[in-house]
């Protein structure tokens, strides 16, 4: 399962699983929140590591850059759209 698929499945699970939601929110207080988040994911059976999150974001951003205006120097700068970790928590706050 790819990173985006894992995050989507977890996003669905936290809607109904208050314990899981609480565990994820508690990771935000850890010294290394992204590592703690990934540790909880692995404990729940999802093989996810911090580098997976970073790589997925960078890959998404690069694809977006290439798809806009030929991917050249005139491509728009995107902000925040490549941070799947932060987007996951932003979505949780909407619940």
Task: Briefly characterize the structure.
With 95 residues, the chain is an all-alpha fold.
Write the layout of secondary structure elements.
Elements: H1 3-16, H2 18-27, H3 33-43, H4 50-67, H5 84-93
Helix pairs in contact: 1-2, 1-5
Series of secondary-structure elements, N-terminal to C-terminal: HHHHH
Uncertain regions spanning at least 5 consecutive residues: none
Principal-axis shape:
globular
Coarse structural class: mainly alpha
Helix content: 55-70%
Strand fraction equals: under 5%
Largest sheet: none
CA-atom Rg in angstroms: 15 Å
Number of helical segments with 4 or more residues: 5
What number is the mean pLDDT? 83
Distance between the termini: 25 Å
Number of beta-strand segments: 0
* Overall tally of structural domains: 1
